Amino acid sequence: MRRVDTERLVLEPVTSANAMTLWRIMQSAHLREYQDVPRHTKDEFARRVDARPKSFDSRSIGRFEWLVVARESQQAIGWISLRVGDGGRGTAEIGYSIVATHRGSGFASEAARAIVDYAFEESDLHHLDACCVPANAASRRLLARAGFTEIRVQRSGAIVRGRPVDIVIFELQRDAWVSAKMLATKKSGTPLENDVATPGLRTRS
User: Fold this and answer.
1) Do 50 and 205 contact (CB within 8 A), yes or no?
2) Which of 46, 64, 102, 197 could, after both became Cys, cross-link 77 (CB 3.0–4.6 A)?
3) What confidence tens digit (pLDDT) does each residue in 120-171 have?
4) How many whole angstroms separate alpha carbon 25 and alpha carbon 186?
5) Do the bridges between strand 91-98 and strand 127-132 make them parallel or antiparallel, or are there none, so unpaired?
């Protein structure tokens, strides 16, 4: 698991050293409007982070999380994650959240595109999943721009503010990601690299 850099962001792996930065962000206002953000104590959250896998590859299982840091201000403004379940080798779920004061500037989109690329480039995952509540129009637009396709609505698929809510399930297949990268490359004239030449609402740890 490594740091990921974009034009405006640094995505720093969450470790025991910076876990409390993420814990403080998770206490921010408005984060629980559309998603189930767990309410762990500091000690409990630190234990959970310490127990997570330390490397991400084709055999990885667990939760992998990055702090979203604005490059200009060096301020942590949110997080983004990949979750690979025991029964879901080959599949990971992407989740993300940006604090309210930094929304509307495209930071979540920029982070999501970077982690989608990271997920497919660093492993042999065959597809990524994502979900959001139907009312979260901004997240639905973000996922569509990142190449995800709406698959279905899952009734009572998550708990938000203590109540079951419906969620929209999205999916991005590796083949679709490769095709999009190839099309972008043709337009830009930049050579493809690595395997390109041959992607929470449910945020619980």
Assistant:
1) no
2) 102
3) 999 999 999 999 999 999 999 999 999 999 999 999 998 888 889 999 999 9
4) 40
5) parallel
**Residue 160 has what pLDDT?**
86
Query: Under a CB-based contact definition with an 8 Å cutoff, are residues 19 and 49 in contact?
Result: yes
126's tokens: 């065959």
Q: Which of 192, 198, 95, 73 is nearest to 146 (CA)?
A: 95
CA distance 95 to 76: 16
Contact 76, 15 (CB under 8 A): no
pTM, two decimals, is 0.87
List the structure tokens of 152: 């279905």
- b/e per residue, 87-103, with b = 16+ CB within 10 A? eebeebbbbbbbbeebe
Q: Alpha-carbon torsion 14, 19, 25, 31, what sign?
A: positive
